[in-house]
Amino acid sequence: MNSVGQKQDNGNKQREFTLFWALLPLIVMIGVMLYTVVELKQGPHIPLIIGTVTAGLVALKAGFKWKEIEEMMYKGIRLALPAVVIIILVGLIIGSWMGGGIVASMIFFGLKLLNPSFFLVAICLICAIVSIAIGSSWSTMGTIGVAGMGIGMAMGISPGMVAGAVISGAYFGDKLSPLSDTTNLASGLTNTDLFDHIKHMLWTTIPALVIALGIYALLGQNVSGNIDAAQIANTSSVMQESFFISPWLLLVPVIVIGMVAMKVPAVPALVVGAVLGFLSQVFVQGDTVTAALTALQEGYAIETGNALVDDLFSGGGLDSMMYTVSMTIVAMTFGGILEYSGMLKSIMNQLLKLIRNTGSLIASTIGAAFITNASCAEQYISIVVPSRMFANTYRKMGLASKNLSRALEDGGTLTSVFIPWNTCGVFILGTLGVGVFEYGPYALLNLLCPIISIIYAFTGFTIAKIDDGGGGTGGKKEPAEVKTELQHV
């Protein structure tokens, strides 16, 4: 039996693959990934390259020419370029804010104000408020999240727990803020009114946050007994000796967050943050220009004799993000071949055959978004591809488009953090310094939302029909491709 057939899709040559050939690159990549990362404790780059080679060979077998496969990889990389720019700028910010004493000031006052028993709850809520205000999970994690990691580690709390609480709060706003790019993308692709989309998401997101906060409160009670007050006092003392600590330095993150909240694009806002950090290191901390430039390029390093302080304030810089950048690029070559060859679409077509009712439709949408996050390694594609595939089915079943837009966010926006090679997963590793296997069990909002959404789907709770007047009919607007100017802000 021939494995493929040819068709046109949006002006690009694509093939209809059998399920075996469409899944083969994913099976090979994930199998090699599990052995390499879990068993050998190595990075994910080589498994992704092996997956890309496998996808290329399958595409060649299907009749694509090398030039076409090469262009698929380049298109995938181009889609990730805005994310790469943000990753680089966040590296500069972390290095300059550490050198400028900004992170030290945030941690110092955080240790004074935050109770260890409720720290996980507090940092989750703080990140939720900031991300709602600016609509940006990445900017929230790259600023407030970095300081939160420092405070939590100084208190002796597990980095995985702290990162999970930060991620839950950051993605709360990424999902619900009208300023969020993913929120606007999901509503726009499904032709759903933006605020109908947001209100419909409250039904899954608010319960998930409440449950998450309850669990964080319980975890906080368990870890508070292990907190060493003398260690916290000693850490604060060493920070005061090593940095000029001042509440005025907190104006720097306030300025950056305020700029983004006022809809200043992410790139110039982050550049301003890096410049202010550089100036703080030179004029407030009294370091040389050479030292400040080194912090931007190589990261900030400090030797105080206190292992915890040295660990907290050594890092950042452009060089520290090159691992993340290279993984993003490699992942997008793999995703580019799967997307533009038609392999991913063939997998989605098989999923459509499983749909029997509303429950299976919404569960399939969430599953498809997760599969796209794993295969194409990009949060935006996990919203775009399923929106194209499922819009007509929602319409035929009489379901309002806001059901689709909510499922896309529950399955796409939130699950991206659980894929180590997804742009969101690699950003978190580079920014918070914690991997998926550490923070995954504690990113509770991201875990709970898809589960709650599927429960609603099978029970019919909050599922709106077209006749109910909710959220439009869906599928009216269908862009040809994701606009590359969209950025993870």
Distance between the termini: 47 Å
Mean pLDDT rating = 87
Beta fraction: under 5%
Please give the radius of gyration in angstroms. Answer: 23 Å
Strand order of the largest sheet: 1-2
Beta strands, count: 2
> How many helices in DSSP terms?
22
Q: Biggest sheet: strands, sense, closure?
A: 2 strands, antiparallel
Describe what you observe in this structure.
The chain has about 500 residues and is an all-alpha fold. The chain has a domain of about 240 residues. The protein is built from 22 helices and two strands. A two-stranded antiparallel ribbon has the order 1-2. Strand 1 and strand 2 form a beta hairpin. Helix 1 crosses helix 16. The chain is globular and about 65 Å long. The chain starts with a strand and ends in a 30-residue tail after the last helix. The N terminus and C terminus are likely disordered.
Question: What's this, in brief?
Answer:
With 489 residues, this protein is an all-alpha fold. The protein is built from 22 helices and 2 strands.
What attributes characterize this protein structure?
globular, disordered C terminus, two-stranded antiparallel ribbon, disordered N terminus, 489 residues, mainly alpha
Write the layout of secondary structure elements.
Elements: E1 4-9, E2 12-17, H1 19-39, H2 45-61, H3 66-99, H4 102-113, H5 119-134, H6 137-154, H7 159-176, H8 181-189, H9 194-224, H10 229-242, H11 251-261, H12 266-284, H13 289-297, H14 307-312, H15 322-341, H16 343-352, H17 358-376, H18 379-396, H19 401-413, H20 423-432, H21 436-439, H22 444-459
Antiparallel strand pairs: 1-2
Helix pairs in contact: 1-2, 1-16, 2-15, 3-6, 3-12, 3-13, 3-15, 3-20, 4-6, 5-6, 5-7, 5-9, 6-7, 6-20, 7-9, 8-18, 8-19, 9-19, 9-22, 11-12, 12-13, 15-20, 16-17, 16-18, 17-18, 17-19, 17-22, 18-19, 19-22
